[in-house]
## 1
Amino acid sequence: MNLKKLGNSDLAITPIGFGAWAIGGNGWEFGWGAQDDADSVAAIHRALELGVNWIDTAAIYGFGHSEKVVAKALKSWKGQRPYVFTKCGMVAREDGSVDYCIKPDYIIAECEASLKRLETDVIDLYQIHWPSDDIGEIEAAWQAMNKLRQDGKVRWVGVSNFNVQELQEAQKFAPVTSLQPPYSLINREVEHQILPYCLQQNIGTIVYSPMGSGLLTGAMTRERIEKLPDDDWRAKKPPFQEPQLTRNLAIAATLKQIGERRNLSAGQIAIAWTLHNVAVSGAIVGARNPGQVDGVMSVMDLSLSKDEVFEIESI
């Protein structure tokens, strides 16, 4: 399997990483609905059996529950331990909603809490989940992140959802190992400035939602979307509503047609399309049970032909 070096780090990652957002469960603002922990553990184990060597989670996913499930899965895993990436900067409220904070004291405290939940002494990649509205806060936040690295709490530090200006602000004080942006056929904004900048600056990129949060799997239908539970954050988001929905389902239908020619799923084609971009180091792919893992992660080194890329780009 081809491994790719993540930015300026010594981490050699597989093309696909296991995304642990959905396994955080429900009861919070960005939950995906009810989730069975046994299914989550089995999904992680199946991904590792297929060769995936990194897991991406965050303190906010299920208000810490995702990190605990990851720890549980790794405790019972008998193979080589994967890299574990997590994130800070989102604050849980009692009513289930989310706030944002990247103040140094919070970052330090949240890292300690994540280490405890993950049952580990060191985090392989620690990331700021979202930037502050005040770009002036980045300096102190990035210094706190690098103090964690100097103290041996984390091995490498990165960011998520930063734009070029915010990346440049952080780079004034210390190198940025990686960026985690959203990227898919239905969300291509990062192609214009952010991905080229990361490639130029040797900042690794691990993209999230390569299947459009389920829209590009080929299994999503209007009927299924209409039945999404109220505690599934996707139910109220524009990509799952008109006028965007018709366009997005048409893209998924084309991916399904391409996949059928190669006995692959639409989701696998969608993931391969993101990895086709030379600036992309890896794609974060979520799964809630082993069957979903097999449906999208079973072909780790899938590549698209020029003709297939042209067909997809012409949608």
## 2
Amino acid sequence: MRVILAQPRGFCAGVVRAIDIVERALDKYQAPVYVRHEIVHNRRVVEDLKAKGAIFVEEIDQVPDSAHVVFSAHGVSRSVVKAAASRSLPVLDATCPLVSKVHAQAKRYVRQGRSLILIGHAGHPEVEGTIGQIDAPVTLISTPEEVAGVDFPADAPLAYVTQTTLSVDDTKAVIQALKRRFSNILGPDTTDICYATQHRQSAVREMCKLADVILVVGAKNSSNSNRLREIGLEEGLPSYLIDDAAALDPTWLEGKHSIGLTAGASAPEALIQEVIETLKILGATTVEPMDGVEENIEFRLPAELRA
């Protein structure tokens, strides 16, 4: 039994930046530092930061006066920004720059007088943050079928943006449906799907040509991790999303010779290595890294943490 290891996998630049912001804030300002929402969607990351002195909260009113607060990588609504500013809380914004880019695009379209459509999943923190950044109504859809229910005239001036962690193929289908129905609509094709999401999805598709079963290391509430599992299923392979090695069911491997292993963009490499060690115990004899994109993107930290 062999393990085929996807390349790239695991942490992206936005996740690295967000974690660095919390760790450097703890070094500079000392514990506790408060973080609104999970900094990224991974329990191991959150627990490690808690052990270093980070305190995670869901609302700004849970942050004590004068305490430093970090906004998560998913971005926040303007109401959250205003709530922190009204109390003069010192804020470090860990919003992924690619999410901030979506916010800027959406605002520009609205300033042009266009009604905005957001392609994304209801309830996801990134979607809630994006909607909360726009001073205008936003229509949220996630599937091509929902386009028929979008209540605008066929020639209305419209624009769309997308959640950064969606399936590239699914998003293309939604965009095509929008363009078929509306004659005056602008948007960025799939360029709002972040580079890391696209790279990991492409790697899984290639891995499916070689594997008998797909394992994705990632949290159940991680959008990009769920998309990786769905790609495996679309390719006809049994595919499983696991938090860590303890969640691995040996029966999934029965009769399998090639195990494809990848990880979502918020899963640390340590979790992947732990899964590999468990797979070796269960009979894997070789680990074969795939050829793939080498990511070398880095995002700048806030100015007060760069020293």
## 3
Amino acid sequence: MTKPLVNQPIMIDVLIADDHRLMLESLAEALDSIPDIRVVATAGDGAALIEAVRRHRPDVLLVDIEMPQVSGIAALRELPNEIPAVVVTMHTGQAERRQAEAAGAVGFLSKATPLPDLAAAVRAAAAGEMLLDPDAIAEVLDRHRAPQLDAGAASLTAREREILKLLATGVSATDELADQLYISQKTVKNHLARIYEKLAVSDRAQAAVEAIRLGLHRDR
């Protein structure tokens, strides 16, 4: 019997530390909506960051510099270097950059960094890339903009992605799918069978859940 393809993206577990609660919650929600990134914990100060790292063992850290009790820089000095950390701060001077690098950070970004760039930075850090040289950061980010999906999700055709997007937005009847895509109902069923195999799901409801997880409902 053929083993079904795993239907999960290649997940990168992220821990975010920032003492601005609104910023922390917004960033966590935004990053967690990206198909290959999962926010496993947040921390509001350096001491909580150290404890959360020990508990969750994330793949990548996003850390603010200025936090109460223990600063982000001080916390990084206490943490194992094998967990790559990207400092995300509003203080982007050379002195702060040097402090972050000396503490073991692999990246140094502004809090004004757009979400797609931040997601790319997470992927780059997880892949062992450095994001400390301002002149080289854009090139590094460009190499890591695409979500890292498993083989099944990555092999979806354009038509299969269209069907999944419709499923995710509530269109599930065979005749409705056929009408919207200008194809026959038999062709719809053939596409669905291939989708089920690629995503290791058994019905349209499960396929819709996976479409949302993969972010296909946001495709334009």
## 4
Amino acid sequence: MTQTDTNSPLDIIFVPARTNLPLGTIVLLHGWGSNNQDLGDLVSYFKLPEYQFLFPNGIFDHEYSETGKMWYSFTGAAQLNSGSITQLATSRTVLTDWINSLPDSTGIPLDRTWIAGFSQGGAMTLEIGLDLPVAGLMVLSGYLHSNRPKPTSNIPPVLIVHGTQDDVVPVAAARKSRQVLTEWGIDVTYQEFNMGHSIVPEVLDIVRNFVTKD
């Protein structure tokens, strides 16, 4: 894995494809208090060697961890205050601008780019990805922001995977996300596993099948 400057304020880990002509780009967004290295360590387990991976770090330092990052802060009971909303808006703008720049920096068009995220990263995946003409969105143990407006065009298909034993982001949040996205007319693939707030090998199988459409 290598760090790369993609003309963005984001700190990014880039994992090249094992081929001169990558089939696509996969962007993975980490969760609250984690960092890009945590997800970067999973690359080999995705078993997608013909795809290049990009792992951006959250813009903001985590309040309670020296190494953790976040896309926005939480208050009590995971609610957003005015500062959190401002941080969310900043992350939304920076991530959107960066992803829109990827075709120029990587040579891979957006229609062969997937965005995925775990937990808060999953929420950011929906926050930005529903308005981008990307190949698909993958939400792992994540959620849809309650005030997220309905997208108007270029809506990509969405994969939602969640654990029924998740005590950080309750499975009810995933089910609600599925309901809202389906009502919006979005193509949603939904899968629950008997797991907590985690990523198990079976989840990576579902992700791989979603990307390759096996």
